[in-house]
Design brief:
Elements lengths: L3 E5 L3 H13 L3 E5 L2 H11 L3 E5 L7 H11 L5 E5 L4 H9 L4 E4 L4 H20 L1
Parallel strand pairs: 1-2, 1-3, 3-4, 4-5
Helix pairs in contact: 2-3
């Protein structure tokens, strides 16, 4: 399965977990460590799917999500967070995120979510 994944998270361990699963699926991976960098990379690289933490330095994930979707309304952003805050997750979904995952990840669920959204991104690109 081909495609580009952006991992936007300030935790290197989370970056490695998501990146490893993406590479196992045959994807190219780009990484951002804060919200501002995530916006720049998302606009420049146009990844098929973005996994973005809600709590990041410089620009939080919710604001980065909104900025990315202003630049590319078709972006597929899945928000991730370790605090499980249901109000922030709901706000992210209302702002245009296509999915939400809580840390720590269930690796099989993460892999399935990634594969599903890559297929949806590819279907949308060919439509």
């Amino acid at each position: 399965m081909n495609g580009k994944i952006l991992v936007a998270d300030d935790e290197p361990a989370v970056q490695r977990i998501i990146a490893r699963l993406a590479r196992d699926l045959g994807c190219e991976v780009v990484v951002a460590s804060d919200g501002g960098e995530a916006v720049i990379v998302a606009v420049r690289e146009r990844p098929a799917v973005i996994f973005m933490d809600l709590h990041m330095p410089e620009l939080d994930g919710l604001e980065a999500l909104r900025t990315i979707l202003e630049a590319d309304p078709a972006a597929r952003v899945i928000v991730v967070t370790g605090d499980g805050a249901p109000l922030r997750a709901a706000a992210a979904m209302e702002s245009g995120a296509v999915g939400f995952m809580a840390k720590p990840f269930d690796l099989s669920a993460l892999r399935q979510t990634m594969a599903d959204h890559l297929l949806l991104a590819q279907a949308g690109a060919s439509a």
